[in-house]
Design goal:
Serine Threonine Protein Phosphatase 5, Tetratricopeptide repeat, about 55% helix, mainly alpha, elongated, 31 helices, 4 domains
Length: about 650
């Protein structure tokens, strides 16, 4: 044992001298304990062969001839591994080991230029039979460290070779079963951490080898709670990965049937970051969330490093299912504010998670009146960020009576104060709905739903006007040409030579009507937009107020003219007429909902009564986005209710 003791001293000397003894015990395998255990074996005559007990299972025959003393028979020196041996190991060639024996070279001495032993390399490259042969010849390599302070178990776990991990676990178990309880706890390779602080379990979870990780959890309970250099434990990583099965396996090892005892036991065992519920929410795994909170309900009240409760964090990231899960358990945290003074409903509103806001309001209606540290409720936050859908939902609630915060500041005032001088659609739409609600509640007269925007600079306005001119010119060209390609053609004989053959068909009349309207309004748009090209900023604004509605009208008339023309040609096929009519109706509604709000919110004077039409235009966008799915009938009921005087 003298040579092995010298080798262990050399390993100890290679360790960084700037690490304290306590830190060293955490991050590195306590190799100096091998000397103590080896000395005990010597005094007890432990060099003799240890007969295997129950190790004759299939695949474990390589353990049969092992001696416990061989585990501590470390080499006295290192020998640089040549390319022939390195190549043979990479190919899984067992003959290279036989050649080493014939030359009298001890394979335990061989090291690569990165400090890997032959067992490290065989484990990394996944050669199971080679690993078994090496363990049979040199069991001491099972505890050998490389330059990263990793034993072969680390290397195999990192590479994802589960069969090799099983072989290494079997060999460790073989030796552990023959040690005293005290020595078994000290010589525990499962809690050994490499220079990055990672155990083999860390590396298995990092590589998403979850079955392997579960097997490592089962062979050792303590490794799951140890932190690495970044303060992350294996349990934390399992929760972050969203693996329900692995989290269950780890939490089983915490033990204690008493609830309070379980909480204290987990808290004492778990190192590093402990915000497990927040991590499960961030992983968007309701399965892991249920596992954690079913075992440790009190964790629902924990806060993260930024002082956010679990419910606030779920609202912040927009995890709707997680919010519902937490609210199903308890609604008390709805009324618990974060360290920044915001409640969960405010957090959800500030980040635009409308569905979560509505869910909280559904469970806790009074939460809409709660104020944050700035004295703002959820309506004011929605007005501030321009969230028009949330504003509409809140303003329709009958118990939202007070919009004010302070003396003269209210939701309308907030929306007007953040309104940018240039055109920002969602800000102007939010203000429009607030002004409509303001007038509906009789809080004061409202002349217009919009505020005039400042003209764009000359370069930007010129590009915008040129685009509108191009569109108007294309509409005028196409409708002009369509007027001379009438459906049904023209008579080629007297007495109505050159006249339309389907003059008496009403569909042809509507075709010509819409075509003429589209052509004339597009020409009118062109004439109006020419004024905007003169360079006068005031002319740009006034020209757009006239040209945009005209162009919108022409764009809507053009598909109607097309529909009438098609019906004129195929009107005798009734089922086809029905199909194209339905398609055209859907298209017309879609085009209106896209174009009308853009035009209306740019006009300088929009009557509050037009907010009904504006709201109808937005129905399509909300239904398509899924935010208002299934809510069209309540919306229509609201729009049809009579306005107050």
């Amino acid at each position: 044992m003298d040579s092995s003791e010298a080798h262990l001293d050399r390993i100890e000397a290679q360790r960084s001298t700037d690490v304290s003894h306590d830190q060293e015990k955490k991050k590195y395998f306590p190799m100096n304990l091998i000397n103590k255990v080896a000395s005990k074996l010597c005094s007890r005559g432990g060099h003799g062969a240890t007969p295997p007990t129950g190790d004759n299972e299939s695949g474990l025959e390589f353990l049969n001839n092992l001696k416990l003393s061989d585990l501590f028979d470390l080499p006295s020196e290192n020998v640089q591994m040549n390319t022939e041996v390195f190549s043979g190991l990479s190919d899984g060639d067992k003959e290279c080991l036989d050649k080493l024996k014939s030359h009298g070279t001890t394979m335990a001495c061989l090291k690569s230029d990165r400090g890997d032993s032959v067992l490290h390399l065989a484990a990394r490259w996944g050669h199971l039979e080679l690993v078994k042969n090496i363990i049979s010849e040199c069991p001491c390599l099972v505890l050998e460290l490389n330059s990263k302070n990793q034993i072969p178990l680390h290397v195999a776990a990192h590479a994802g070779h589960s069969a090799i991990v099983e072989a290494l676990v079997a060999s460790v178990t073989f030796f552990s079963d023959r040690l005293a309880e005290e020595d078994r706890e000290r010589l525990n390779p499962y809690v050994l951490r490499d220079k990055y602080g990672n155990t083999a379990l860390h590396l298995a979870i990092e590589g998403r080898y979850m079955e392997m990780a579960a097997s490592l959890v089962n062979v050792n309970q303590n490794a799951s709670f140890l932190e690495n250099n970044e303060g992350i434990s294996s349990l934390y990583m399992a929760v972050e990965a969203g693996d329900v099965t692995l989290v269950k396996e780890i939490l089983k090892t915490a033990g204690n049937n008493d609830l309070e005892g379980r909480n204290s036991n987990l808290d004492s065992k778990l190192e590093g970051r402990k915000h497990l519920v927040h991590v499960a929410l961030n992983a968007r795994s309701t399965g892991v969330l249920d596992v954690i909170l079913n075992e440790y309900p009190s964790l629902e009240d924990e806060r993260d490093d930024e002082g956010r409760t679990c419910l606030s964090f779920a609202a912040f990231i927009g995890f709707y299912k997680g919010v519902c899960n937490l609210l199903d358990r308890s609604t008390k945290n709805v009324y618990v504010c974060d360290e920044d003074g915001s409640f969960p409903i405010h957090t959800a509103a500030e980040n635009g998670h409308i569905r979560i806001v509505k869910e909280i309001l559904k469970r806790c209606p009074h939460s809409k009146h709660m104020l944050n540290k700035l004295g703002q409720n959820v309506l004011h936050i929605a007005a501030k960020i321009g969230e028009h859908n949330l504003v509409k939902s809140l303003m329709r609630s009958d118990d939202t009576k007070h919009l004010g915060v302070g003396q003269d500041v209210d939701a309308r005032g907030i929306a007007e104060s953040v309104l940018k001088p240039n055109y920002i659609f969602h800000e102007r739409l939010t203000l429009a709905f607030l002004l409509d609600a303001h007038a509906f509640r009789g809080c004061g007269s409202v002349k217009s739903l919009t505020k005039p925007s400042e003209p764009l600079d000359h370069e930007k306005s010129r590009d915008y006007v040129n685009t509108l001119l191009l569109v108007a010119a294309l509409v005028a060209t196409m409708t002009f040409a369509a007027g001379f390609t009438i459906p049904g053609g023209f008579n080629s004989s007297a007495p109505h030579l050159g006249r339309a053959t389907l003059t008496t068909d009403p569909n042809l009349f509507f075709f010509l009507l819409f075509d003429i309207l589209a052509m004339q309004t597009s020409v009118a748009s062109i004439c109006t937009l020419i004024w905007a090209q003169l360079g006068d900023p005031s002319l740009v604004s006034s020209s757009l107020n006239v040209a945009l509605p005209l162009l919108l009208f022409s764009l809507l008339c053009m598909p109607l003219a097309f529909l009438c023309g098609v019906v004129t040609a195929v009107g005798h096929v009734k089922w086809f007429v029905v199909i194209i009519s339905l398609i055209s109706a859907f298209f017309f509604y879609w085009a209106t909902s896209i174009l009308a709000p853009h035009v209306m919110l740019q006009l300088s004077n929009v009557s509050p009564a037009s907010c009904v039409y504006l709201d109808l235009c937005m129905c399509y966008q909300e239904l398509v986005s899924g935010s208002r799915s299934g809510r069209l009938i309540p919306k229509l009921r609201h729009l049809m209710r009579p306005k107050k005087d």
